[in-house]
Structure formats: C-alpha cells, structure tokens
Amino acid sequence: MITPPHDIVFLTSEIYPFSKSGGLADVMGILPLTLSRLGVRVAVITPFYGRLSTGHYPVHLVHENCPVGYPWPDTTADIYQADYHGLPVYFVERGEYFDRRNYYCTEKGDYFDNCERFIFFCRAALSAIRHLDMHARIVHAQDWHAALAAAYIAFWRRSDPFWAGVRTVMSIHNQAFQGRFSYRLFEQSGLPLEAWNMEGVEFYNSFNLLKAGIAYADKITTVSPSYAREIMTPEFGCGLEGILSRRSADLVGILNGADYSIWSPENDPVLECTYSALNPDGKQDCKAYLLDMLGLSPGLEHRPVLGFIGRLRGQKGIDIVLDIVPELMKLNVGLVVLGEGKAEYEARLMSIMEDYPTRVSAIIGYTEELSHVIQAGSDIFLMPSRYEPCGLTQMYSLSYGTPPVATAVGGLRDTIVPYPADGANGFIFDSPSPAALLAAVREAVRVWEDRAAWRRIQVNAMQTHFSWEQSARKYMDVYASLHGDLASQWRIR
Ligand code: ADP
Ligand code: GLC
C-alpha cells in the first residue's frame, strides 16, 4: 500500500488503463503520474467498475464499510487501492452502483440512477479522504461526475475543521456533458437548500452537477486555452457561459499532452512495423497491413487513405464525413472509420460500406489496439469536430505521421499548424460543413500527391510534441495559487 499524505487528490470517473470511454481516461492515466514524477504527492480516486481491467495491477482492500453520511446514513463503500507505477489509485466499490456492463449507459440510454451513482461516488470519495487520513490539501474534480465534491467541500469547510484548509479545482473536459437532473435528486444530495439558486446548482429548474463544480470550486480549468475562451460564449457555453464569465478570473485553459510511451510509432508494440520521422519507411508497411486486414483494395497503397476514430456523435462531425463520401470517392481515396455511438450514424456507415466495399471500411465498436493500427496505417486523419475541448486523437495522429484535417475549434486550433504556414503539420477549415471539409480534404490530397511537400508536413507532424511535463507544471501553478507552501515543498523535493 502507498501511504498518505496525498496533497492532491484527483476524483475521476475514468482512468486508463483501468477504465476508459474517451480522452478523460487518457488524461487521468498520465497527468497524475507526471505530477508525482515531478515530486507532487498525488492520489486518484475512481469507481470500481465491474468491467474494470485490473489485470497487471492487483488491487487491495484498504478500508471496509466507509460510511457515506448524511443523508444516506446506512450506505457504505469499500475502498481498494492499486499501485500504478508508484501512483496510488483508490477504487470506490459498491456493486449496486458500479458492477455493471457499461460505465454510464446501455444501448437504450443513460442509466436511470446516474445522479445517485455519482452523488454516491463523490460522497464516498470524500469519506475515504477522511477515513484513510489522506491529508488532502487540494481535491481536484474531473467533469460532472466528480463536480459535486467541490460543492460539498465549500459548504462543509464553513463548519467542519477537517475541511477548513482544503481547496478545490474543477476541470472541465467537456462542457456539453453537465449531468442535469431533477430537484428531487438535489434533495438526495444532502447539499443545503441555499445551494439551490442561479449562482449555485440550479439551472433552469434542474439540478446541474457541472454547474455545482463551476460555482463552488476555488479554481476552474479546462483542457485548452481556446476552449477556455470559447466556453464563455453562447455558441460553445451550453448555457453555462454566464457563470463561467463571472468566474473568468479563476478559469484557466491548460492544454493536454500526449502520452508518448503509449502513442509513438517508434515503440508501439501493436504495430506491424515501427517507424519514426527519421526512419519513416515502416509507415507504408503499416498501411499495407491495414488495407489487407480490412479487405480493402491493395491499389489504395498508391492513394491516400483517410482515417477517423472517435465517438460517433454530433460533436465529432462524423455526419459531415458521411455527407461527402460520394465526393470523397471521386478523389479515389480510401476511408477507414472506427467508432461507436448514435445508431443512425452506425447504420449509415454500414450502408456506405456496402456501396464501396473495397474502399470504405467501418468498424463499429471500441478497440484500443485497432485505433493504433488505424493511426499508423492511414495517410490523413479526419477530425471535423463541431467543438473540441482539446482532442487527443489529432495529437496521436500527428505523432503517427498522419496529418489531421480538422475544424478550427478548441484544442484543434491550439495543436494544429495549418498548411501552408511555415512548419505546417495539418489542415484546418473554418466551419463544420460538408463543403468546407471537402475543400480541405481536396487540398490535403493535392499536397499528398506532391511527395516532397507531404514529407515536410509529415516530419513536422511527427516532431510536434505535446509535453505532459509542461502541462503538469501549469497545474502545479494552479495548486500553488491555492496553497503557496506547496510550491516551496516541490522545490525542495
Ligand atoms: P473524446 O474524449 O472527446 O472522445 P479525445 O480525442 O480526447 O476525444 O479522446 C478519445 C480517446 O478515445 C482516444 O484515446 C481515442 O483513441 C479513443 N477512442 C475513441 N473512440 C474509440 C474507438 N471506437 N475505439 C478505440 N479507441 C477509441
Ligand atoms: C473530452 C473532450 C476532448 C478532450 C478529452 C480529454 O472528452 O471531448 O476534446 O481531449 O475530454 O481532456
């Protein structure tokens, strides 16, 4: 067991490699670890899901029957711990809430008791901090699932000396997911009635968990500087732009990094052939492997293959890709899609695959390994997101020498240097429309045909580095702004 003190305690609903449905898991799998390598005493608390893959990392029970407290006096949680490369990861276990097939939903929709599940998670995590004597100085909540923790602490520290010195940070990975529920569930949360107002948790007569985090956290972060600006506008704020603007002095955008121990073609064990910017030949073999594996025409070895990996949701703009497939096919390119999500998009993908069986392949599902194979085997990566808080898949595509074609939003804007600028590593287009995407793909294909020009973009892409160490240091600045003495401790360590 790794024993406290843990100065910074992260609360998150996902952490790779234990659980993952998207980028939040990737971030949690590396940011706390990077902080701990920089000398920060950090721990993570997350739910113990039934589908948790604890494989290489044994978990141990560290506290049984941790009480969750008012207004749930009889409810308890068991707390487990794993040692993830020296980082203590605590798991909150209660089968009735987390031992399910999926994390948040079934094919039919969200679990009916999601609010209760994550009220429970937050309360149990805070209870674990107390009962395990973690000595948390800062509780750092991720997304709506953990947001209530900031609200509880803000109220409890008024009267409970245990919480008096604890500060909170709320990180927004996606402002569109807010966790909105009814007043009845607000009552179940045990928050005082005074939290039910426009500057608190109330949002158009609903109980808004993300808003609770925004209203009560001491500092707020989001995952790119551009998204930090965007979420204060009506276009991207999803109704929370007002409260965020009022808190703008406490809001900071810190760009995510990429974990190059997992996402580098030079040392990726999943790949048929490894390669690098200096030694790029293996990429062609990866492409041949991908085409062969998916039964696509070998002729595509001499034409660009477009890749798309992501949740099949409006955010990611997969419908915009679907709208232009016939036009794309006229460019004599291939298209490979990996994703799962909205049934309508999945059905359209299946039907397009039947129309172009040798040039389009769509894999519906979630397959970590295949995502690496597609990153390596494609030539151009499509990311026509309508909004993108940061986006990690374009960072990975850059690393794999697969320049992205992306919309000028959020983190895409902050990570891609658009052609024809000096140092270009990809292509950017302004509005998420079929015509704009098509024009940008046409341009990318034209440049791809010019071998030397393409090679320059690829090398730029592969040399673009999104350092987690740099970002972790920015989080340390945020923590130090709340507890000045932490900075001096870090200097000594
Ligand atoms: P978001 O978190 O909005 O989904 P990101 O780009 O930040 O987007 O991160 C997505 C993460 O999920 C990446 O690691 C990506 O490779 C992975 N991913 C998304 N869809 C799939 C899928 N169908 N199969 C495997 N990995 C996927
Ligand atoms: C969210 C966002 C994505 C971001 C990820 C990790 O899921 O949609 O843009 O990269 O969180 O921060």
- The strand order across the widest sheet is 3-4-5-2-1-8-9-13-14
Measure the end-to-end span. 21 Å
The CATH superfamily title of the largest domain: Glycogen Phosphorylase B
CATH architecture of the largest domain: 3-Layer(aba) Sandwich
Fraction in beta strands: 15-25%
Proportion of helical residues: 40-55%
Count of DSSP E strands?
A: 20
Q: Give the CATH class of the largest domain.
A: Alpha Beta
Domains, number: 2
Describe this structure in words.
With 493 residues, this protein is of the alpha/beta class. The protein has two domains: 8-257 and 468-492, Rossmann fold (3-Layer(aba) Sandwich); 282-462, Glycogen Phosphorylase B (Rossmann fold, 3-Layer(aba) Sandwich). Helices cover 41% and strands 20% of the residues. The protein is built from 22 helices and 20 strands. The mean pLDDT is 96. Bound molecules: adenosine-5'-diphosphate (ADP) and alpha-D-glucopyranose.
Summarize the structure.
It contains 22 helices and 20 strands. It is α/β, with parallel strands linked by helices and 493 residues long. α2 packs across α21, α12 packs across α16 and α21 crosses α22.
Summarize this structure as a short list of keywords or feature phrases.
alpha/beta, Rossmann fold, six-stranded parallel β-sheet, 22 helices, binds adenosine-5'-diphosphate, binds alpha-D-glucopyranose
Summarize the SSE layout with pairings.
Elements: E1 8-11, H1 23-28, H2 31-37, E2 42-47, E3 59-69, E4 72-84, E5 87-93, H3 95-98, E6 105-106, E7 109-110, H4 114-131, E8 138-142, H5 143-159, H6 161-164, E9 167-172, E10 180-181, H7 183-189, E11 202-203, E12 206-208, H8 209-216, E13 219-222, H9 225-230, H10 234-237, H11 241-246, E14 251-253, H12 282-294, E15 305-309, H13 318-323, H14 325-330, E16 334-339, H15 343-355, E17 360-364, H16 368-377, E18 380-383, H17 393-399, E19 404-407, H18 410-415, E20 427-429, H19 434-449, H20 451-463, H21 468-482, H22 484-492
The structure holds adenosine-5'-diphosphate (ADP) and alpha-D-glucopyranose (GLC).
Alpha-D-glucopyranose (GLC) is lined by residues 22-24, 27, 173-174, 223, 256, 388-392, 411.
